[in-house]
Write a structure and sequence with these properties.
Number of helices: 3
Distance between the termini: 21 Å
Mean pLDDT: 89
Low-confidence stretches: none
Largest sheet: none
Radius of gyration: 11 Å
Order of helices and strands: HHH
Number of strands: 0
Strand content: under 5%
Structural class: mainly alpha
InterPro entries: YqzH
Protein name: YqzH-like protein
Length: 63
């Protein structure tokens, strides 16, 4: 999957939490990697994987 597309989904997901602060490049890369890993492990939909990873990041939890 295209990493730019996944990052765009992540940034859109952050908007629902009203977090408009910018992520560092390292944080972006880590979140994209976590989404790809979660998607591969659980065979879930992209949207679900993004939402789970963003929720975990926002609440400081590892899912």
């Amino acid at each position: 999957m295209n990493e730019k597309w996944i990052l765009k989904m992540i940034l859109q997901s952050f908007q629902q939490y009203e977090l408009h602060e910018s992520l560092s490049k390292k944080e972006e890369e880590e979140l994209v990697a976590k989404v790809m890993q979660k998607r591969a492990q659980e065979d879930s939909e992209w949207f679900e994987a993004v939402e789970d990873v963003v929720y975990g990041f926002v609440t400081n939890q590892e899912l």
